[in-house]
Amino acid sequence: MVLPPTAAHELHVIFTDGDSKAERELARKALTHLKQWGIRPFDLDSAAEGICEQFVRGLLRQRLIPEDEFNDGLILAETSLAEIPLLVTSDKHLLDIDEDALLLAFNEADLPPMHPVHPKRLLRVLR
Question: Which residues in the chain land under pLDDT 50?
Answer without folding.
Answer: none
